[in-house]
Write a structure and sequence with these properties.
Chain lengths: 307, 421
């Protein structure tokens, strides 16, 4: 694949063959689409229905339609906006760090001269660990009474990492980065594999340095893979829950929107309010996906985007 | 249903009784009761359940489904199943603060009068309070729990009576020997601390299921104590993230003179810090007001019978059996869990279980004050109190007015159940 603009295909009058192929395509997709509808559309509609009602499992006799009251309660709450801010901060910072580190890992995995399998396996281990387990590992590492971090040089011995907002968030972000950088690396590696080696050779012949080759060939051609990786990770990071739940339970103002949803739904059993939170998270995720797909052109495989 | 009965019978045949997963061949009309409870490490519940199953002469067989060890995770699992009207739950091992919530949601079968009379006989009033909702008994208390003031006899010859005395003594010892260990992370343990301070100061958080009390003067006094405790140089360095377990670890590490904690720390110290164990003593929860007895917290487990159980009669018969005095004594012997009946404390074995502090256990539970769990919206209250107070280092010990206003505002919001928490 080269960087030649793909151009938009003009829709030619479909021949019988393409018609038949399209039909077959639809048929082959159908089972997956039906399954998806069953397992996603129904819960989503149900959540929307709950979000416009007063439903509290603890007060079964008080149920009823309340319109947009739950949404008003959520959107007028400082907690919600604090949660949105925290979540965005965690998502942006962790994804940015992951992108840089992931790029490095991808290059190492791509260029590894020996033990390629071993290198790739080693890099992927953090991603293979269950998030909750990883979160506990980080929690215990930074806990003043059981962790090793406070015994390191230049770290005060009694630093209570989870006792304060900034350090709590920093540890949460580090845990996220540690856990998901391999995923980023893997997606970028897939992108690297699609770049034609001939381009590098041609550039070498033209006298381009390694740095120039990286910035003029690798990075531009990696754009589609990079955008897909960013989209996946941002959506993922936006739903951050496990690390926060394990490390701070949302104290020190480290709540993400998912933790807020959990508190309303599971702790308070207030299904109406909790569903409103869930629907709002869903809307935010849709907005992020829309921005990536439409504005940044993630979905365009040729990587030039619809400008 | 049949399969359950057969499996249960199989278990009896195999003499397993507990992990009833055997496959039997014969049939019987015996009811299989499933008890959802956390896996109490001593195995005491299994032991008494086996006993009761045997004594029932074939009326029922109790089998176990284990819940996680953390109370909020236990609740989460129970609530999910009960919310879906799952009929596979019969007996519920419930934290004492869930009664109002579960009862109001319609998940519990009220205890029939005859059973109620039997299971509340000689039971501490403080404990019964946690089992009632709107003047009706909804759960059957099986074991209790409370916190003590643990102190080191080598550093503190005579235990302090009040929090202020304790902080004075600790500050004299200094941070290398006099640390005070409490629970003040943003979790249920902080609610316990705040509630007991407020109760010990002479007021309560609520006066009814949906009515705030929080009289200003005593509440401010309680918050002042909390502020002083958290900001003192002898507060644990991790005070804002402290839990029962970090407190235990802190005490076992040797730089502490005082700790407020449950009785599990005693066997733990014996194992992990035998030198400290030798000088470790228990006293009653400290007072806030020198003129008023302290109100220690109350924990423990009550047994609920699910409204969706298919064997309510057998379930109540089983709960009656499980809480018999001899079974309470057995639970105390095996797991060190304090009985809920005051007469069990007269048994000579109790002194061996709580060497030297059996009276403290008895008196603490007798004087204990429950958290405001008569409200079905207790979880809202708990979240609101945690938010209002945490981190307790914010509270100005000299001027607790701001903290009081904040607490009051959050409690009112929680009672109305409005907005996010």
């Amino acid at each position: 694949m080269t960087a030649v603009p793909a151009g938009r295909k003009r829709r030619a009058p479909a021949s019988d063959k393409t018609k038949a192929e399209r039909k077959l395509g639809l048929l082959l997709c159908a089972p997956a689409v039906i399954a998806m509808l069953l397992v996603t559309v129904y819960p989503i509609l149900y959540a929307i229905a709950l979000s416009v009602q007063k439903v509290d499992l603890r007060f079964p006799e008080e149920s009823g339609f309340v319109g947009l009251q739950n949404y008003a309660a959520v959107l007028s709450s400082d907690l919600w906006w604090q949660g949105v801010f925290n979540t965005s901060l965690i998502a942006v910072v962790s994804v940015a760090i992951e992108l840089v580190l992931g790029m490095g890992l991808a290059l190492i995995m791509h260029k590894a001269l020996f033990g390629r399998g071993l290198v790739r396996t080693a890099v992927l281990i953090p991603y293979g660990i269950v998030t909750v387990v990883a979160a506990f590992a980080w929690f215990f590492a930074f806990d003043p009474s059981s962790g090793f971090v406070n015994n390191l040089p230049f770290v005060p011995d009694d630093k209570a990492w989870f006792g304060e907002h900034n350090s709590s968030l920093a540890v949460i972000i580090m845990a996220e980065v540690w856990k998901t950088t391999p995923f980023m690396g893997l997606l970028l590696l897939a992108g690297l594999a699609t770049i034609d080696e001939g381009l590098y050779e041609a550039a070498k012949v033209d006298g381009a340095t390694a740095v120039q080759r990286f910035f003029k060939i690798t990075l531009p051609l990696l754009k589609p893979a990079r955008l897909v990786a960013l989209l996946f990770r941002t959506l993922d990071a936006f739903r951050v829950f496990d690390s926060i739940f394990v490390m701070t339970r949302g104290s020190q103002d480290t709540e993400s929107v998912s933790i807020l949803g959990y508190n309303q739904l599971i702790s308070r059993l207030n299904l109406g309010l909790g569903s409103a939170v869930s629907v709002l998270i869903f809307v935010l995720v849709l907005v992020i996906a829309f921005v990536f797909v439409r504005i940044l052109g993630t979905s365009n495989p040729a990587g030039q985007g619809e400008k | 249903m049949w399969r359950g009965a057969i499996a249960a019978l199989g278990a009896v045949v195999l003499g397993l009784g507990l992990a009833a997963c055997g496959e039997g061949t014969s049939s019987s009309a015996r009811a299989t009761l499933t008890w959802f409870i956390f896996n109490e490490p001593s195995g005491a519940p299994q032991k008494i359940a086996e006993r009761c199953s045997k004594e029932s002469n074939g009326a029922y067989e109790i089998k176990f489904e284990y819940l996680p060890s953390q109370a909020d995770q236990q609740r989460e699992q129970l609530v999910r199943r009960l919310g879906a009207e799952d009929s596979s739950l019969d007996l519920l091992g419930m934290d004492v603060v869930w009664t109002g919530e579960f009862a109001n949601a319609g998940w519990l079968r009220p205890v029939p009068d005859r059973t109620a009379a039997v299971v509340s006989e000689n039971v501490f009033d403080s404990v019964l309070q946690t089992a009632r909702f709107k003047d009706r008994l909804y759960t059957v208390p099986i074991w209790s729990n409370t916190q003590f003031l643990w102190y080191r006899e080598d550093r503190v010859p005579k235990p302090p009576k009040t929090f202020d005395e304790m902080i004075d003594m600790a500050e004299k010892l200094g941070p290398s020997k006099g640390r005070i260990q409490v629970q003040a992370n943003r979790y249920e343990g902080l609610v316990v601390l705040v509630n007991q301070l407020i109760e010990s100061a002479g007021t309560s958080i609520l006066s009814g299921p949906e009515q705030i009390k929080l009289e200003r003067e005593p509440t401010e006094r309680a918050l002042g104590v909390l502020g002083r405790l958290s900001n003192s140089p002898v507060a644990a360095s991790n005070v804002t993230t402290s839990t029962e377990d970090t407190a235990r670890l802190g005490f076992e590490s040797g730089d502490s003179a005082f700790m407020i904690n449950y009785s599990f720390v005693y066997p733990s110290a014996k194992e992990n810090a035998p030198k400290i164990f030798k000088v470790m003593r228990a006293a009653k929860y400290p007072q806030v007001d020198p003129a008023r007895d302290s109100k220690p917290p109350i924990g423990g487990i009550n047994i609920g019978v699910s409204a969706f159980s298919k064997h309510p009669q057998e379930a109540f018969a089983a709960s009656e059996c499980l809480v018999k005095p001899e079974n309470q004594l057995e639970v105390a012997k095996l797991g060190g869990l304090p009985p809920v009946r005051s007469d069990v404390y007269d048994k000579p074995e109790i002194d061996k279980i709580y060497p030297g502090f059996a009276d403290v256990v008895h008196d603490s539970i007798q004087d204990a004050a429950a958290r405001p769990s008569q409200s079905p919206a207790y979880q809202d209250l708990s979240l609101a109190i945690q938010r209002a107070i945490h981190p307790p280092t914010q509270i100005d010990a000299e001027n607790p007015q701001a903290a009081y206003e904040r607490l009051r505002e959050f409690v009112l919001k929680a009672i109305k159940r409005e907005g996010l928490l």
